[in-house]
């Protein structure tokens, strides 16, 4: 009996030892998915295949075996949590999953506490931060990169507004928020967010209600970010509502490509997604990938096709295997310790005390993040922020029968291209717009023409365009009596711009105003925001307050406020002939006349008989010669070269001066002069005179709010006739109005003039609601009209730009200042100085030859002759006529030669 018990105890001991040894040789990993979904089915097959391949390679884990435990969450978050708790009780070293980001947020708190790495290739919420969830790792490119790719596509096709349809869960909401941020960086935006209940609660009625709302909106670019069941249902209903026809743009996120890659769809579903664009994580072609694809039919028994999530699932298992190998190679052991925070739950029904901390979890996590391998999905490595290295996407177009046609690629390195990303990484990064390219797209409605991406309000009805009914200046905009035809410069520009668009714009003009006075332009533009008008066309100034509530096109005519006053002819005075030059200028001209006459006398005195004679005669000659040059060449001839040079330069200077004098005197005697002291807006502000302005113009608010002119000084005027009457009768000292109106006024009415500079800078444009895509297209059309000269033709047709007869466009004729001629005087002065220097150098040389005894010591005394004596002799030599000096020099030579001859 005792032997029996001994044998039984021995067998139990041996069995327990074998069991412990078996457990020690097992590396347990778990997987939490909804295996009823297509992604869950694909992931299950791929993970089981990966475990089998790992265990068949003895060089990897040696005697140890990778054991995969699967837990089906059945779309339930609660079941997902219970599955994770069960894994934590069974010495699991890593968990793959969960399938949704909602569960990833919850389970990350659990694995953070127990140090068990959690890896997911489907929970790709961009807000799952490694700082908050250090033990959660995304093994596929997260949705931030996906949304960046979509934003680049939207910008590439030049769309500015999109509608986002998404499910009400954490991943979809956060991903759409990321899309909005990326669109904002590209000057685009999400105009409407259609939120659907999460699967499987999205009913047909809810989807219909949201799609009907979208139909009534302007944007026709729709981004669909849901799970496959809801997404396909949205496409089917959209087709029934006529939203899969020409004009719509549908962009589905990667769920659509995964669904089409892995499952077959009905013809009805296939027709409903015709023309949609979608993305798929790019996995480069490789022998490993081709081998795995060839095995797939056998692995799945033909139950489901392989999609990209299967590749990531397979590689995720291998990442854990390589990390575990590194862990064991460095002496790591799978051990667990109690969590002191959970000890208080010991003995409770939930038995949370059974959960324990994986002691090697931190090391295993570090090994996973150091992964640098090439799997079936391509090169796998993590950036310092734990994002996937070199992520990229295939850009796909859904064509007939639900087939995916590749039209390009997107990678974070070079943006959109038709070249595979792996080829681009060998080249320098280049994201310039000129290099972005995709192949031709077949859009909904089976058209290759790029949809406009938006429609007009009221589901494409004609635009209600408000037009001001003006009292004056009807050349800009007016309604023809009897026919009701709207015409004018502004209307012609608008219609010409519409012709430049690539699509028709149905519209109707609606006059605004009672016809007795100019309407308020502020009220006109405010009626656009009140949805009374869809746009406003006319002479509408682009000012700050209006741009805060509306979008304006590119200005089609420059504008700005100017001051207009009455002018009169200058009263003739006796000394009017002196006005062209300032007193200083007259003084400098007189001084230079005397200076030039004196210098010419010096240069000519020795050689020219006309510049010789008694002192009184010579003074008269200098004065006569000086001032006769004002009227042309003088009577006296110049014989010396230096004298002729000086005279030539001076005559040129006098030619310029006399010509300027003649032109300026003519202007002074004919130009109209101001009838008041107002020289511009500054002098107008400092005065207390009344100021006229055009009714309806922004000039009233500007003068009151910006310039601080009291409203009691402002006088409303409605037409050009009122302008002229008010100025002539003295009811206003000046009129402040926009330049285009003033130019028209001055071209018709004489006796008035602009004064001072234009003191505001603006322009006229067409007004549209905020973020209207038509405003952008019309701006481009206006630039085109400007470049091809059409704007100038329209301006010549309607606007009279000729100045009224006898009226000068100049504000005033100013006296000519000395600074206008200082260059001429400088040239003349330098020439005179140069001539004098050359002349005196020449005279000095001549003096030394004629009077050598004055430059040597006296032979009798041995001393030099005094400077005063030499100076007197030199001046006498200079004053002496050239012939006399030459004769005296000749006699001296003869006297010197006589003794030697004898």
TrEMBL record:
Gene3D superfamilies: 1.10.287.70, 3.40.50.2300, Periplasmic binding protein-like II. This is Glutamate receptor. It is found in: Membrane. Pfam families: ANF_receptor, Lig_chan, Lig_chan-Glu_bd. It comes from the Eukaryota. Residues 462-802 form the Solute-binding protein family 3/N-terminal domain. InterPro entries: ANF_lig-bd_rcpt, GABAb_receptor_plant_PBP1, Glu/Gly-bd, Ionotropic_Glu_rcpt, Iontro_rcpt_C, Iontropic_Glu_rcpt_pln, Peripla_BP_I, Solute-binding_3/MltF_N. GO terms for molecular function: ligand-gated monoatomic ion channel activity. Glutamate-gated receptor that probably acts as non-selective cation channel. One of its GO terms (cellular component) is membrane. Keywords: Disulfide bond, Glycoprotein, Ion channel, Ion transport, Ligand-gated ion channel, Membrane, Receptor, Signal, Transmembrane, Transmembrane helix, Transport. It comes from Anisodus acutangulus. The keyword Chaperone does not apply. One of its GO terms (biological process) is signal transduction. The chain crosses the membrane at residues 584-603, 645-669, 821-847. Belongs to the glutamate-gated ion channel (TC 1.A.10.1) family. SMART domains: PBPb (SM00062), PBPe (SM00079). Disulfide bonds join 750-804. The keyword Iron does not apply.
